Amino acid sequence: MLRDYYSKYYLEQNYNCAEAVLRAANDYYGLGLHDTDMILVGAYGAGIQCGSSCGAVLAAAAVLSMKYVAAKAHESQDIKPVVVKLMRKFNEKYGSTLCKDIKPQSFKPEYRCQMTVETACDVLEATIEEYEAERKASANS
After folding, report:
1. CB contact set of 93 (below 8 Å; sequence gap of 6+)
2. How far apart (Å, rounded) are the C-alpha atoms in residues 96 and 52?
3. pLDDT value, residue 86
4. 10 Å Cβ neighbour count for 123?
5. How far apart are CA 134 and CA 82, in angstroms?
6. Please, which residues have CB within 8 angstroms of residue 83's CB and are 6 or more apart in sequence?
7. In whole numbers, what is the pLDDT of the chain averaged over residues?
8. Number of domains in the chain
9. 92 and 52 in contact (C-beta within 8 Å)?
10. Residue 18, exposed/middle/buried by CB under 10 A (0-12, 13-18, 19+)?
11. DSSP β-bridge partners for residue 108
12. Structural domain harbouring 133
């Protein structure tokens, strides 16, 4: 499970929510990203540093880009439906995708946003599994 990979980064190495999700997904899905690539999502933490879009969700969307965009997002038939699925699932859990709305529901000073990171990992994994099953079923019909 993807969830099994985040704690090394979030709890042990003190990366933020976005960095932990991306690093965990890189390990789990073999995305081939390098340490310097991970810096790209650093600013996503704490809702892009201002309580806006949740960094864990943004990192999950970045993972979907790595999996479903070959060169340009607007040329991918997969990126929009799979990201919409991710956002809907996350919104169902928290009623929002904004850090300022999610944090009061899941932040604990001793664990920070651990629950949100776990949720992002679970939602990302479920989204990919469901989307791949749908693609397979569509291809077989």
Report:
1. 119, 123
2. 11
3. 98
4. 24
5. 10
6. 61, 64
7. 96
8. 1
9. no
10. buried
11. 112
12. 3-140
> pLDDT tens-digit profile of 52-87?
999 999 999 999 999 999 999 999 999 999 999 999
Q: Which residue, chain included where needed, has tokens 């009061």?
A: 104
* SS3 sequence of the chain: CCHHHHHHHHHHCCCCHHHHHHHHHHHHHCCCCCHHHHHHHHHHHHHHHHHCECHHHHHHHHHHHHHHCCCCHHHCCCHHHHHHHHHHHHHHHHCCCEHHHHHHHHCECCCECHHHHHHHHHHHHHHHHHHHHHHHHHHHC
Contact call for residues 20 and 63 (beta carbons, < 8 A):
no
Cα distance between residue 102 and residue 98, in whole Å: 6
Q: Which amino acid is residue 32, in one-letter code?
A: G
